[in-house]
Write a structure and sequence with these properties.
This protein is an alpha/beta fold. The chain has eleven helices and 16 strands.
Length: 370
């Protein structure tokens, strides 16, 4: 199917009957495929100055469209604040601050380089967190291992007890040992990339109910589509983590997973084939997975790169790192029962007006034929 472009009064589109009775369309103007479209200009100054300058430096240094650097940075920021803050758009309407981002670019466009440039504060923070807890973690593991063996031995003694008195004594010792077992200490985690839905739930539960999936590949969609579960899609945990819907998983094969405010941020840089493949999975469409992403698909600059650029500015890189690590070190609020809860931010009048205009635009497009 073609669109005729630039037709005037003297231009003609005609159908003529050929000798074999098949209609042949003849167009005397240059045809334009329906795939041609013009996307709006990307707003380049959304972030506050220190982060915005860093994004531009990454884009210039790696020679990628500004959209790619922006989206990867946005995902890292979301990973740092999700679950700690939430937005009250208006009374009774609250949104979490996790976000799903996807930039689409063909191969050889340096998606991995951008990921490394934007993710490094998160990678460093996890490493530094482990190093600060390493001694405590090893001591905890040793104590738990020793207590586990003592519990097993004492339980065997109880099972072999020849008198009720010996059985009760051994059973009481088992209970006391179990009560003295210290909770397992983990170094905090904030991101992953290649993970099954089951393991994701367990990892989130151990990390304040939040996790980010950050990758320059789209392998996570193969897992969602059932690559590791005999072709049966398993995306419930992802959908619930996007919306903040409570999670209750009770299966005999593994430990239960209970979460009241799960948060999942996704930041992916994928090739067009990944995006096309996603649309072919019926469950991705039917369950609304595709509609939860913020997509950018900028024109690539392959063949026009100079290869002669300046490295990312060290000052901007340090400022960005300090901002992300400061956000990662921020604590959540605590409710009257001692549970972590997000702090609530509210919109100014001008911000609310901007949101409401956007909401109206989207709402109109959700109608039939929108």
């Amino acid at each position: 199917i073609w669109l005729a472009r630039g037709l005037g009064e003297d231009d003609h589109i005609a159908a003529r009957q050929s000798d074999n009775d098949e209609a042949e369309w003849v167009c005397f103007s240059e045809p334009v495929p329906l795939e041609c479209y013009r996307l709006p200009t990307f707003p380049e100054d959304v972030f506050p100055a220190p982060i915005n300058d860093f994004v531009h430096s990454v884009s210039d240094s790696v020679e990628v469209p500004i959209e790619v650097a922006f989206m990867d940075t946005l995902a890292v920021c979301a990973a740092a604040v999700q679950g700690k803050y939430q937005i009250e758009v208006k009374a009774g309407y609250i949104e979490p601050l996790n976000i799903w981002c996807m930039s689409v670019q063909p191969p050889a466009t340096r998606k991995t380089s951008v990921k490394q440039a934007t993710m490094f504060p998160a990678v460093e923070w996890e490493k530094e967190s482990y190093q600060s807890l390493e001694g405590e973690i090893k001591a905890n593991q040793s104590e738990r291992s020793t207590l586990t063996k003592r519990i097993d031995n004492t339980r065997n003694n109880a099972a072999k007890a020849k008198t009720d008195e010996d059985y009760k004594k051994a059973s009481q010792q088992v209970r006391e040992l179990e009560e003295s077992m210290p909770a397992e200490i983990h170094a905090p985690r904030i991101w992953t990339e290649d993970i099954t839905p089951e393991t994701l739930g367990t990892l989130m539960a151990a990390n304040n109910q939040r996790m980010a999936i950050l990758s320059a590949e789209g392998g996570i969609f193969g897992i969602m589509a059932g690559r590791d579960s005999k072709g049966a899609p398993n995306i419930d945990i992802f959908l619930k983590g996007h919306a903040g819907e409570p999670v209750r998983v009770d299966r005999g094969s593994r430990e239960p997973v209970y979460m009241n405010r799960p948060c999942i941020t996704v930041g992916l840089s994928v090739q067009p084939e990944i995006l096309h493949g996603m649309t072919k999975t019926r469950e991705f469409r039917g369950l609304g997975l595709l509609g939860r992403f913020l997509y950018v698909y900028p024109p690539n600059n392959l063949g026009r790169r100079t290869g002669n650029t300046q490295p990312i500015n060290n000052g901007l890189r340090l400022n960005y790192s300090n901002i992300i690590k400061t956000l990662l070190n921020k604590s959540s609020a605590v409710d009257e029962y001692g549970n972590e809860v997000p702090r609530t931010l509210t919109l100014s009048g001008e911000s609310y007006d901007a949101w409401y205009a956007f909401w109206q635009e989207i709402e109109a497009e959700l109608a039939d034929h929108g």
